[in-house]
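Aim 2, interim progress: modelling of the heme C-bound target.
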Amino acid sequence: MSDQILGPGGGSPPQKYRVEAEPDPAALVAPTMREMSEPTDGIAPTPVWLLLFFFVLAGWSGYYIARNAAGFRGDIYNEHFVKGMPVQKPPPVDPLVLGRQTFNVCMQCHQDTGKGIAGTYPPLVGSPIVLGDPATPVRILLHGLQGDVTVEGATYNGQMPSWDRFSDEQIAAVLTYVRQAWTNTAPPVDSALVTAIRKQTGERTQPWTWPELQVAAKTPPPPLAAPAQPKPAKP
Ligand code: HEC
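Predicted structure of the complex, ligand included:
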């Protein structure tokens, strides 16, 4: 350690070179301006740009998958490459399998056994409504049923909900299932009948009542959609 004692301004250039100037106020506050805000505890909201970024990313991913999924076929690597290839049709669904699946929604009221609950939910097994002209159960499923209805000697007065959100195939399938489950044996229901009745009763908003259904049963059945005819060749 050196014993040299430094005078005032030790180490700085000799006094005579010092230029005295007015202190610059900006320079005085500069150190405080430089300080950052105190870090805080807690959860900061997600920045909007990040949210937007994820939305855009999610949207783009969906678009990309939709564009490039090639119908999820295992044998297509690049769908644009094989555009001309015929797309295989999925095998037709067995109406009894679809019907059994759809029946899950009916079960809570009409029960797994199809016997319903005495006094509350009418039975489907052995019911003449189920086994008779299929147009009536189709109407019931499309718009629901309310008011007194008598099934196998017992009168019910409940609310059967409408199932019009089901497709024509699904309604036909569940009725086909119900007409052939348990001890029931009635012919299957054609989805073309559901299509036709849906069209004929499209304006209806209220559930049917049993007297209304009997009037409807007497009106001529709607013409079923004819299967597409090949166009006659021009001579
Ligand atoms: C929320 C309970 C409920 C559900 C779910 C329900 N039903 Fe019903 N269903 C009823 C009630 C109640 C009646 C009697 C309505 C009345 O009293 O006017 C009825 C009546 C019927 C009838 C006519 C009466 C008979 O027993 O033949 C048929 C057919 C029928 N339902 C089929 C179905 C089918 C098929 C499904 C499923 C798609 C279904 N129901 C789902 C409550 C329900």
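The pocket of heme C is lined by residues 105-106, 108-110, 121-124, 127, 129-130, 137, 140-141, 145-147, 149, 151, 156-161, 163, 174, 178 (CB under 6 Å). The chain has a mean pLDDT of 84.
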